[in-house]
Amino acid sequence: MTQREQQRLNPDEEIIKELCVSNGVSYEKVSQEGSEILDLEMFFSGFPRMLGLSLFPGLSRLTIVGQTISVIQGLECCPLLKALWVVECRLDEISGLQNCLQLQKLYLYDNNIQRITNLEMLVNLHVLWLNKNQISEIEGLSSLVNLEELHLADNAIAKLGQSLDPNTSLQNLNLSGNKISSLKELTHLTRLSQLRELSLTDPQSSPNPVCLLYNYYTHVLYHMPHLQRLDTYDVSMKHLKDAAESTVLKKMMYYTMRGRCAQRQFDELKAKLRQHKKDQIQLPEERIWVLTHTLRNLECELSNKQGAGKKSGEPEDSDICSDREQKLQRKLDAVRDRLKIWEQRLKKLEACYQRDLALASDRKEMMVHLLLLELETVGNIRFEEGNTNDPWFTSCYDLLLSRFCAWDYKTHHINGIKINRIIRIHNQALRLRFQDKLHFLNMESPAISQNSKRHTEYLFYVPDPEHSCEGDEILHIAETGFKNADAYKALGRERAVPLSNSVSMCDRLRMTSLQKTSECDPADPLPFRHGQLIISKVFLGRNAGVKEGVPIDCKYYPKANSVYLSTDSKQHTALTAPDCDCRQRQKLWYIFDHELVLPEYIVDFEYITQDTPEHSSSSDPSSVTHVSTAVASSESLAELDLDEGALGMEPILKPHPKMLSLDEKSILTVARANVLSQITVLNLHGNSLNKLSEISRLTALQRLTLSFNDLTRLGDISHMPNLEYLDVSFNRISTLEGLRGLSRLKELDLRWNQLTRLRDDMNVLRKHTPALLRLDTQHNPWHRHKCVRLVILCLLKTLTHLDDILVTEEEAAAAAQMAARSRINQASLVAHSWTDSERPRSLSLLSSVHLLTQMSPSPWKHSHELEPGWTAKITTLNLDGQQLTRLSNLDQLVNLRWASFDNNEISHIEGLEHWPLLEELSLNCNNISRLEVSCTLQRLTRLSINSNHLQCLDGDVLDRLPNLHFLSVEDNIISSLHGLQRSRLLFELYIGNNDISTTREIFHLKTLSSLIILDLYGNLLVSKLENYRIYMVFHLPSLRALDGVAVEMCESEAAKDVFEGRLTADMVAEKLGHTNYRELSELNLQSSSIRMVDLAPANLFGNLRSINLEHNNLTSFSGLIFLPNIKMLFLNYNHIESILPRQKVQSHMSNKQILHHKVTSSGYGQQNSRLSREGESRDNQEPLMPSLEVLHLGHNGISSLLTLQLSRLTNLKALFLQGNDISQVDGLEGLQRLLELVLDRNRIKSLNESSFRGQEYLMDLRLAENRIRELNHLEPLTGLRRLFLDMNKIQDVSELEKLEVLPSLIELSVAGNPVSRRSLHRQAVVLHLSRLHVLDGLTITLEERTRAELLSNEAQGSSSGAADMTLPGLVPLMTRPVPLRRTSLNPGIHTLITDQQEDPHDKGRYKKQRGGVSFLRGLQNDVSFRQIRGASSHYPTVLHPTGHRVFSIYPNSDLDSRYQFHGGPRPKPPL
After folding, report:
1. Between the chain's N and C termini, which has fewer beta carbons within 10 Å?
2. What is the secondary structure of 481-510 as a DSSP string?
3. Contact 968, 994 (CB under 8 A)
4. Is the Cβ–Cβ distance between 1102 and 1080 less than 8 Å?
5. Under 8 Å between Cβ of 1263 and 1285
6. Residue among 11, 66, 9 at smallest CA distance from 41
7. What ranges in 876-928 are assigned the alpha helix state H?
8. Cα separation values, 1045 from 268, 968, 1016, 1027, Å
């Protein structure tokens, strides 16, 4: 070794020596003891490289910290190394680890590593730390299947992708301090089933942008429920996972509903387009019918003439026939030419319809993608569709119009632009990135920050179809923003984001590309008519003009953030208007940094040309209908003139008489034959036949023409063995059922009929026309007409021509393939089944079946390698669009959980008993007419049977689905919701586009307390029911979304204001459980919180006689006044103010009041204002409720009888007003038939002259418990028989003497009054009221009346001077009170009960005895008062079954005929 080499090695020796010293190893003995060293450390010593490791071959742990090492080397001699730290060094790459196959822990953090490489051999690696490097992409880890801990914090990673999928053992992952900004990227981590700890932000690192997004934790916890720690927080608690699960499920339901709304809008637009097409093709179809009819007549006439010419042998006749034949031929050719023109026009209209439909479908798909994007980002990306009420919409609209110049499009004859839709983009991640970038630039250059608004501009972008790698670049930009400059360079464009401030300049590339691709389609002269552009907010920063000859690249413009290219005005001089300066302002902008471009709006636009009406916008076909109709009418008039010219050519055929029926004679006449068996050709074209009763007798018939008749069926055409040609075009045939026995039929014409059931009709032909070669089915309204041609060829394999087009071999092969797919066999199961055990945790609008189909690979590699029992592993089956007719050969799928059979021809639901674990089933777009489930499916939660023929929902079937959460039966013919009340766990119900029309169907849903989403859109009920939304919200308070629109709090409040306490026919049906309103005679709805009555229509309740609405919240009679035959009305304990609702001044009404006022009902709110106007003369008030006889208004808080307007109840016979606050008796003038009036427990102090004016027939008056002192103005009550004045304030007997004006009074009660406490009031009353039979509840006996008279005479004698005179032998008598028993008031013998004799001279004894009698009498009066309601004599009081007492006005009739309460037991009289 030379001296120079020794000098060179000396530094290495020094390093090794220092290494040995720092680790406590003797340098001199290192060669002997180095193999025993297991752990070696190098801390902050400034080692330039890794040396001397060959001296430690047994090393298992190596730690190198803070060195200047740039390359890992020297580890070839350390094969036993298990842990390696090379941290805080200067490593540029990962290398030198090829021989460390036992390495388990590798720490390379805080270096300059840019890529993860050279780790493929470290299969035993468990821990890898690559923090604080410059890594931008996760790669090179696919072989580390045992990796458990991975730290990649503080790098530049923005995307995860599938880079970590092979690391299935990963348990701890730290990605803090990176650039991950999308929640969708985090969903890739769901495939790491062992992951327990995840960090996207921690105290040592800055957070990823994704951590700043809304619902970040919810999103992560939902997708990774197995996590124990997230961002250093403990998230193992179950309630956290449940909360995330619940939140996400609600969002998924919401966006599912939104997706259905988008589909519904598309369906509506499709229906409008279909109607528009129908209007457009009406004239061409009519002309085709007319011209074809004429054409057939001409062909028939020409055929007859040619046949006649051959039979005639004379030359003159031959010349005449030849001339006529030539004219017929010329006319025939002219008619054919006209027919071709109309057929071409029909095809053109169909092409326009298909083009508009495709455009509408694309827009719908885009809307669904936007909704899915919102869902996947948990609302961090939102899309808002604008309208003219939004200020931003108007600003954006004006911006586009200002940047559009028609002169730029003059070569394309475009004269305007129409904006169909503007969608605002709310992307939280992009906005944060944009703001962070602006903040960074402002910090670098304060001059820019001072003028940031001047450097901000709104520019346009339109994707270039030729230079776009994404299928839909618009959606990609809305989600992740614009691509970086390098990506645009890779696509062959400039190395910058290309934008423009001009619509024409940004759309130029798209227009050029579409023109090239559509040159072969002359039917579409403007293929770029419809387009989309993005309006972006752009920070231009420092900008400069593009230098000629200098590439657009940031390295050539180092100080610029953007460059622009102005339009060359010289080359556009010929196209620019003299006064237009648009070209001077138009620029192409190129932004070098894509983070300075923030997409904010998506605009759907349409170029307007002179022929725009011909190509109407699919967004609103009705908007151009009148224009296109005007244009079409002018064109059609010219075409009609040409038609008339052709039809008017010579010769003019005489119309032949039309046959209405077919018999043997008419057949022989038309066929010109003698016997039916000789007829081989029969032409019955152009008649009015609807039956062919005799046609089957023509057994020799070979050709039959029946075009232009009125046939609807072909059942009469059967068993005709020689028939080869049949023409039944231009009829109204709706089915081919009945057609049979046509074994030789080769050609069949079915054009222009009404056939709809493709498969059924083709099966008829397959069975009964085995030799059929040519078939024409054009212009039939086939149901689900997609792939009609292929389906027909699949069923009729003998066809050589279909719809006048030759059947190719390729079509025959495709049909055979379809036929093979239509049977479920092993091949179809292998191709369309999966074995996943769990539904992927993905925020998607797809069902589980379609999600697994999209995300999971097929588990079957080779069908010939299937092991026994492989079908038992199948959990998912997707057989959509296989043309299946039956669910067969599926009984081995015992573990099937998710199944879909959409777009088939299945007519029966069968075989479900073999799938006990089934959770989701989809049978959309089939032919199912009945919901059939023969077994209980405990696990089925989702069922979808849209677009079938269901007529009802069987409750027994739903009972077998106890855990059903989701049910969708849209686009059926369901007319009732009966049965749905059995699905008590239903969360979502979609039943739009059915035949539900009545509100009572909604009551079947009231038991569904879990129902939160309901969709009834498209049913007649929605358009028929006024205030539909708040009606539904009121009756189904658990709803959170209705018909695709969220239920707002204000709607719930409005629903309560309008419908709470509203008695309707539906409420009656709900309470009673039936809708037989006409059989209803009595109605009892006490304590039902009713505040208004709306029993409409009133004639439904024509048999209703009695209504009990006590203990409710009524303030008026409301709709009760319109019930025609009500006799008894119980309204006690309400808040009745008047019969009619009081009209209030509506000068200042709240929104709720306005909504309440708009509600129409059967009378409520609709009364004639003349009837309720305050201050109106009572004489002009019209009578109400003419059948009402008994009215209970007790305990209503009534203070005034005038405001009640009771005088309008002219037929009233009994009125109960007890327990109110009435102070005056008035307003009863119109009750002239009143027999009983109850005013107990009010505040009446006195009676006035008008109190009882007109009540001469009143028989029973009750005024107990009032404040009456005087008994005046009772003279009008000439027929009064009973008067109850208990518990008032009558003090003088003289007031009772005033009752002498009541000539018919037979019963009186004044118990509880001050006057009743006097010992002689009874004698005075008996003496003055000679006709009185009962007083204070006690019968007045003959003895009592005699004694009263005697006492009166004695008193008169005493006053004349004979006060001390006594009559010997006359014993003083004192009557004892006699209880009232069912005694007759007719004169008779009464028992006199004597008491002790009284010594008139014994003053003390008399007073004592008198006090005792008074006490006993007062006690008896109190007892009598409590029983007085039940007391009766000649006119008894009947006890109502409900507890109400009703006065009988039929004294001599049986109790059964008095105010009966229909339907109840016979009321008993009170005791």
Report:
1. N
2. -PPPHHHHHHTTS-SSEEEES-HHHHTHHH
3. no
4. no
5. yes
6. 66
7. none
8. 17, 17, 12, 15
No. of helices (H) and no. of strands (E), the chain: 32, 51
Helix (H) or strand (E) holding 254: helix 238-311
Q: Is there a contact between 1270 and 1294 (Cβ–Cβ < 8 Å)?
A: no
Can you spell out the DSSP letters for 1363-1385? TT---TT---------B--S---
SS3 1059: helix
What one-character DSSP code corresponds to residue 205? B
Cα distance between residue 689 and residue 694, in whole Å: 12
pLDDT attached to residue 310 = 55
Helices (DSSP H) in 609-757: which residue ranges? 625-647, 664-671
């409409």: which residue's tokens? Answer: 1096
What would the two tokens of residue 1068 be? 């009656």
The Cα–Cα gap between 868 and 861 comes to 15
Is residue 142 classed exposed, middle or buried when 0-12, 13-18 and 19+ CB atoms within 10 A define those classes?
A: middle
Q: What is the CB neighbour count within 10 angstroms for residue 767?
A: 11
pTM of the predicted model, to two decimals? Answer: 0.75
Q: Are strands 1307-1309 and 1334-1335 parallel, antiparallel or unpaired?
A: parallel
CB 1418 within 8 A of CB 1317: yes
Contact between 1039 and 1014 under an 8 Å Cβ cutoff? The reply is: yes
DSSP sequence for 734-801: ---TT-B--TT--EEE--SS----HHHHHHHHHHH-TT--EEE--S---TT-TTHHHHHHHH-TT-SE
Place of tokens 């007073």: 1407
Separation CA 759–CA 782 (nearest Å): 10
pLDDT beneath 50: ranges in the chain: 1, 3, 7, 569-576, 613-617, 622-628, 1144-1148, 1152-1153, 1155-1179, 1361-1471
Give the burial class of 787: count Cβ atoms within 10 A of its Cβ; 0-12 exposed, 13-18 middle, 19 or more buried: middle
Report which residue type is found at 545.
Answer: G
Give the contacts of 986 (CB within 8 A, at least 6 positions apart). Answer: 964, 965, 966, 967, 980, 1008, 1010, 1011
Report yes or no: 461 and 498 within 8 Å, Cβ to Cβ.
Answer: yes
Distances (CA, A) of 449 to 446, 591, 597, 940: 5, 18, 17, 61
The angle formed by the CA atoms of residues 652, 645 and 647, to the nearest 5 degrees, is 35
Task: Please tell me whether residue 472 adopts helix, strand or coil conformation.
Answer: coil
Question: Which residues, at least 6 apart from 934, have a Cβ–Cβ distance to it below 8 Å?
Answer: 912, 913, 960
Q: Any idea what DSSP says for residue 291?
A: H
DSSP letter at 71 equals S
Pairing verdict, β 876-878 and 833-834? antiparallel
- pLDDT of the residue at 1364: 42
Burial class, 50, CB count within 10 angstroms (exposed 0-12 / middle 13-18 / buried 19+): buried
**In the sheet where 197-199 sits, what is the strand order?**
39-43, 61-65, 83-87, 105-107, 127-129, 149-151, 172-174, 197-199, 229-230, 233-234
CA distance 306 to 312: 10
3-state DSSP assignment of residue 602: strand
Structural element, H or E, at residue 336: helix 315-376
Count of alpha carbons within 13 Å of 810, Cβ hemisphere only? 0
Residue with tokens 């394309």: 412
b (16+ CB within 10 A) / e for 947-970: bbebebbbeebbebbeebbbbbbb
Tokens of 384: 């808002």
The answer to whether the CB of 1110 falls within 8 A of the CB of 1130 is yes
The pair phi, psi for residue 964, each rounded to 5°, is -70, 120
Alpha-carbon span 1106 to 1102, nearest angstrom:
11
Q: How many CB atoms sit inside 10 A of residue 255's CB?
A: 20
